[in-house]
Structures are given as C-alpha cells and as structure tokens.
Specification:
Elements (H helix, E strand, L loop, with lengths): L18 E2 L1 H15 L3 E5 L9 H6 L4 E3 L4 H12 L4 E7 L1 H6 L1 H9 L6 E5 L17 H6 L5 E3 L4 H11 L6 E4 L5 E2 L14 E4 L7 E4 L4 H13 L5 E4 L2 E3 L3 H11 L2 E8 L4 H12 L4 E6 L9 H7 L4 H13 L2
Parallel strand pairs: 2-3, 2-4, 4-5, 5-7, 6-7, 10-11, 10-13, 13-14
Antiparallel strand pairs: 1-8, 6-12, 9-11
Helix pairs in contact: 1-7, 3-5, 8-12
Length: 329
C-alpha cells in the first residue's frame, strides 16, 4: 500500500490522476527563490519558455540573462556569477546543457566549485516527438561522475519545486533533471522532502524485492507494485530523488530486508540510477539486480507512453523484472 506517513496523492491510481510537467515545478520554485533571495539569478540559452525560466524573467528582469544559442558562454557566465556571491540557475535542454557544454561546465563550474545550479530539461524518452537528438538519456551518467556535484531527479511537479528550492540552500554545484511531458502527480505539498534521502513510497509485509525508481518512472513502479500485490507478490517501492549523494544506508536496509532489487529509470541503464546502485551494492551488499531503462540504444520519435512500452520500460516489463530477480535469489 502507499506509505501513509508520506501524505502521497490519494488519487494516484485513478484514471484521471492529475498530470503536470516537472519543469513547471522548476519555474514555480525559481520564482519563489527569487522572492526570497535577491542573489538568485537565472540564465538560459534561448529557451526561456520551454524551461519555464520565463516566469522568473517576467518578475525579475534585471536578474535574468538571455544568453542566446551559446550554451558554453552561458556556463562560463554562470560560473563567474557563482563565485561572486550570486546563486545562478542556468537552464536549457539537457542534451545541450550539460550535454553540448559538458567540458565548459567541468572546467569553469565544477573544477572551481562554483555555486551554480544546472537545470537540464527535456530529459528521457518522454521528450517524445522531438526524437533522439533531444531525448537526453545519458545526462545522469555524465553529471554524477563529476566530483562534488549533487544530482537531483524529482518524480513529479511538487518534488520538482521542492528540489529547486532545496538546491539553493547549499554552496556548490547541482544538477536538476526535468521532463517536458506531463507526468502523474504522486506527491502533495505536504509530502516530506529531504535532500539526499530515499523515501519508501510503497510498503508491504514480507516483501520479496525492492524497486528503486527515479523521476517520473516511479509512477510505473508503483502501478506494477500495486498489481503484483493483488497477484500475491509483495514488494517495496523506493523513490530515489537524489542520485548523488546516494542514501547508502537506506539502500542497504531495503536490500537487506528483501534480498533483491530492480532499478527503474528513463535513462540509459549504464551509468544512471541502475549503475549507481549496482556500484554501491557491489562494494557493500551484493544482491541479484535487474535494470529497467534504455538498453544500450537510442529511442525513436513517438508518443511518450508508446515509447515507454516499445523500449520495455512500462509496468509489465517491471513486473517481469521483479519475477526474474526473485527467481535469482
């Protein structure tokens, strides 16, 4: 059942569950930060409306920088602002930033530990009709390998807003990952959010495996868990909203309780959430694992829900992965 302590959306499994893009949480969170702190500034690379940074620009025009189609310049400007007492949020499509300007971010922001918050939008195959060139499916891998950075992947609108606000409360670089398409609202304003903490969204008696989900894919994990319980297989579902640093103790506790794990993400399985947890368990508590995500391929252009099914990332694929990993114990 849904964890009653987390005050999750009671209509989560309804046909008419509310849907909203996580990027809207970024836009609303950015405006709230701007109202709270005059040192918060925003930059974008000719994509203000798509990344919802236009909301900030309309309210705080003197603290908004339109850098044009020049992602590397945007990163360098943000780096300078970040070491000068400002809290810069820079946003673009994730394939462009951190993708196109990876080296510039590495050298100007990360190496100097500049206080820059990098917002990567249009992540995952739910970017849909824009196709593989705009579907960022490697961005977790290329950011979490940087020293010192924190990596956030909010599961829905509310968590997107909370993660944006939380990222301004510490000194140093951060990567925030957002989606273009509308995705189900799983949490509420009252749901606790703690940076770096894994929360168990689905609880059950005598669970046989744990599903570690991140981002909007957590919804498919919860639907799969609900159906599996009706079929007689109990599991846990954990929301990994912070990829780096990982909540290692909770991972050990959940795998210790179940003996097997499945990871679920809208990202390449190499280097993403699955890779991060496998690395950690390999050193600390080896256990059977299965991985749901893109399997060493790009996706094509299409409707988001159809792409999720085509590439084996939907609820039925998750259920099969659970059955497979339990059989391996």
């Amino acid at each position: 059942m849904l964890n009653p302590d987390l005050k999750l959306n009671p209509k989560l499994f309804d046909q008419d569950v509310e849907v909203k893009p996580t990027r809207h949480g970024y836009g609303d969170g950015l405006v709230e930060l701007g109202e709270q702190n005059p040192n918060v500034v925003a930059l974008t690379a000719d994509l203000a409306e798509s990344t919802q940074a236009h909301r900030f620009a309309e309210k705080f025009p003197d603290r908004f920088f339109q850098c044009g189609v020049a992602e590397q310049n945007m990163a360098a400007i943000a780096a300078g602002l970040g070491v000068s007492g400002k809290i810069p949020f820079m946003s673009s499509y994730a394939t462009f930033s951190p993708g196109k300007n990876w080296e510039t971010i590495r050298t100007t922001i990360i190496y100097n530990q500049s206080n820059v918050k990098i917002a990567g939008h249009h992540s995952g195959i739910v970017t849909g009709p824009d196709g593989a060139t705009h579907q960022a499916t490697e961005d977790i891998a290329i950011t979490r390998c940087w020293p010192w950075i924190k990596v956030f992947v909010p599961c829905d609108y509310f968590e997107g807003k909370k993660a944006t606000i939380a990222s301004a409360n510490f000194e140093g670089p951060a990567y925030l990952r957002f989606t273009r398409d509308k995705t189900p609202i799983m949490t509420t304003e009252q749901t606790p959010y703690e940076m770096g903490k894994i929360s168990t969204f689905w609880v059950s008696d005598n669970p046989k495996a744990v599903i570690f989900g991140t981002g909007h894919m957590l919804y498919y994990a919860l639907v799969a868990a609900s159906e599996l319980e009706k079929e007689g297989t109990n599991v846990l579902v954990a929301n990994v909203a912070t990829i780096k640093p990982l909540d290692g103790q909770t991972i050990i506790d959940l795998v210790g309780k179940t003996g097997a794990a499945v990871t679920v993400e809208d990202h390449q399985v190499e280097g993403g959430l699955g890779g991060a947890i496998a690395e950690f368990l390999g050193k600390n508590k080896p256990a059977p694992m299965e991985f749901i995500g893109l399997q060493d391929t790009f996706a094509e252009s299409g409707k988001p829900k159809e792409l999720i099914e085509k590439y084996g990332m939907g609820k039925e694929a998750i259920k099969q992965a659970i059955k497979k990993v339990i059989a391996r114990k």
